[in-house]
Amino acid sequence: MQSLLDSKLIVITGKGGVGKTTIAAATGLLAAQRGLRTIIVELGDQSRLPDLFEHTARAPGVETKLQELLSSISIDPDQALLEWLQALGGRVSGRMLASSGAFQYFAAAAPGAKEMVSMVKIWELTQGERWQRRADGYDLVVLDAPASGHALGMLRSPYTFGAIARVGPIAGHSEQISGLLEDPARTSYLAVALGTEMAVTEVLELQDGLREQLGRGLSAVIVNGLLPQRFTAAELRRIAPLSENGQPSAGAGRADGNSHAARSSDAAVRRAAAMAARTVHDRARFQHNQVARLRRQSFEVVGVPFVWGARLDLPAVQRVADQLARKL
Q1: Nearest residue to 16 via CA among 154, 199, 188, 197
Q2: Is the Cβ–Cβ distance between 4 and 220 less than 8 Å?
Q3: Which among 6, 26, 17 is positioned nearest to 313, based on CA atoms?
Q4: What is the DSSP letter of 103?
Q5: What CA–CA distance (Å, rounded) separates 163 from 171?
Q6: Which of 16, 63, 273, 320 could form a disulfide with 26 if both were Cys (CB 3.0 to 4.6 A apart)?
Q7: Which secondary structure element, helix H or strand E, spans residue 19, and what is its range?
Q8: Which residues pair with 305 in a beta bridge?
């Protein structure tokens, strides 16, 4: 497939709690290491990336340099709205319109207004010539989008506003954003899922929504947190008796109480280990069945192994980026 990193915008979404931010951070790391000036976009009150890179989070709407060639921003809709109005009508008229009670009512009442403002800012970040003269352009924008349903609503907002405005600069920007989202050479869509039935079903629904709204499909599906399949069928047959009584069937001679207690303790440990092994195997098998379910739908599927650790730190994200590099 065409490399995702050839895009101007990568939209990353999926069911809530599947690790979208981790994949967005890993994708940004990978792009920067490939020499692309990259910015990762978070939305609303989310600003987790500076902490991951051990930086103090800046105010919403302010671009933060995380490392060489990699930055992040948390979009504040109010700040983004002011920037947009100033771009549309100049600094003075923009501030006057932003402070207008009638306009504030319209922005609050219009369907998808905040989503549209966020999409305008994301589009602006993809432009070589930015609204602020001193602002640098980016080779790639990675959007850590909301969960699938909300992401589809956000992607639909330019069409909603384009239908409302019809003519004028707002209609013009709506058309430009729609063109960006529909263009496979400039925008890629990446779904993140866990190996669960519900998360995979949401990916299938996301694919249907993208086709219906944008005439697009998913470029790839990242299945996060995959467990390895450690045991063969023959090994599981050998483990099975241990989970029942904790010890092989060989007999033993007469023993004193201390030896009996020690053997009982060892048997309990073996039984617990055998049950844990079987549980992990069953979970891994179920996960890989869900991966097969995605592949039957002709998705490009990339598996990311489960990261073992007390917390997800930057070295762990780098390992995820290395895994993506081998696949993408």
Answers
A1: 199
A2: yes
A3: 26
A4: H
A5: 8
A6: 320
A7: none
A8: 226
Whether residue 27 contacts residue 33, with contact meaning beta carbons closer than 8 Å, is answered with no
- Who contacts 247 (Cβ-Cβ below 8 Å, separation ≥6)? 263, 266, 267, 270
Amino acid making up residue 31: A
Q: Residue 221: exposed, middle, or buried by beta-carbon count in 10 A (0-12, 13-18, 19+)?
A: buried
Interval 79-129: pLDDT, tens: 888 888 778 765 545 555 555 554 555 556 566 788 898 999 999 999 988
Is the Cβ–Cβ distance between 75 and 61 less than 8 Å? Answer: yes
Per DSSP, the residues of 135-156 read PPP-SEEEEE---HHHHHHHHH
Kindly report, residue by residue over 133-174, the tens digit of the pLDDT. 777 889 999 999 999 999 999 999 999 888 877 777 788 889
Q: Is 78 exposed, middle or buried (0-12, 13-18, 19+ CB in 10 A)?
A: middle
Q: Which residues contact 283 (CB under 8 A, 6 or more apart)?
A: 227
Nearest to 147, CA basis, from 12, 24, 41 = 12
- Map tokens 């073996």 to a residue: 270
